[in-house]
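sorry to bug you again but im stuck and you know this stuff better than me. what follows is a protein written twice so to speak, once as letters and once as structure tokens for the fold. id like you to explain what the token line says about the fold, in plain words if possible. anything you notice is useful, everything is just below.
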Amino acid sequence: MAAWTWRFEKADGTQVEPAVTPEEFTTQGDAESWIGENWKALLEGGADQVRLLEDDTEIYGPMSLHADEAAAAEDESAGDGA
């Protein structure tokens, strides 16, 4: 069975220890729900971005934990189609 985990990084990509102890998740949805519940504490604890891994394979990332940056990126992409 696959294990889904998060890698926690500074903005420059260096790995950091998370402020909230993660677990290994059995589904991608469980991992994403966990990050949705804990992103603020992770950001406050020194992580700037995360990467989602399935076993040793990177599924996506880096994904910023900074809400302002994420909102700005969404605004820019929404404006592209107008």
Notes: The helical segments are 28-44, 67-80. The beta strands are 4-9, 49-54, 57-64.
